[in-house]
């Protein structure tokens, strides 16, 4: 378990949970001799001591995202892909909702007459749901939802279990389309900035593409002059006083290089002081852009 414990901690925990439950069932039904501990018990068993020196690795980089100009071409390929996972990703990109909200969405959360989607925070433990916010259906979202079968309370049920789709589903869809692109001579579906920084192809994700992509687009070119920043935050279900805004300003910096006259008052933090971005050297500007998240 140690290799994936460090690199894929959530997967490792899920594996241990499954083993622990199976072992407990087996012991309760007399299939395990007395005195033998559950090998997946991290709280009281030997495994607690064995994993003590292995800390889960964390990834502080932002979620890899397609550049917003690549999304239309990606969407065409996505539309050709069959399966509920592809429709989930399609819905996620069109709405910019988080993966969990998309995967847990139920038909009762939709109002086709008012064209609204209500997002709830659900808890299986207490059988309760708490309303978080509403978002609107575009024509494309409406058409997508109307094309789906309604044979389950979930809008995007897992094909086999008929329960909530795995959180790995969006990643698998992106991986399939990425491999398909490479196999036909394409460039793959990658985050161009991270790919450049890491000197390898970094496959894009749903979270990065649907959410960071929206904010990057809204702050690029003419959009930044006509699109209300607070409206974008509300579309994404952010509180207006949350700290996310600083993570999506790459587009503004890039536009400042092309149109410095429009960003004369743009201040950036450099070490222990601030300076006007347009006054910095090209090398310093590029360095700041590369360290800035979408």
Polypeptide structure, described:
The protein has 294 residues and is mainly alpha-helical. The protein contains 14 helices and five strands. The chain has helices at residues 2-7, 9-28, 46-50, 71-80, 84-95, 99-103, 139-146, 169-183, 192-198, 206-218, 223-226, 229-235, 250-258, 282-291; strands at residues 110-111, 116-123, 128-136, 267-270, 273-276. The strands form two sheets. A three-stranded antiparallel β-sheet has the order 1-2-3, with no helix packed on it. The chain has a two-stranded antiparallel ribbon with strand order 4-5. Strand 2 and strand 3 form a beta hairpin. Helix 5 (84-95) packs across helix 8 (169-183) and helix 5 (84-95) runs parallel beside helix 10. Residues 242-248 have low confidence and may be disordered.
Determine Rg (CA atoms, Å): 23 Å
Query: Order of strands across the widest beta sheet?
Result: 1-2-3
Order of helices and strands: HHHHHHEEEHHHHHHHEEH
Low-confidence stretches: 242-248
| Percent of residues in helices | 40-55%
Which whole number gives the mean pLDDT? 81
Return the structural class.
mainly alpha
How many separate helices? 14
Beta fraction of the residues? Answer: 5-15%
Distance between the termini: 33 Å
Number of strands: 5
Biggest pleated-sheet summary: 3 strands, antiparallel
Cα shape? globular
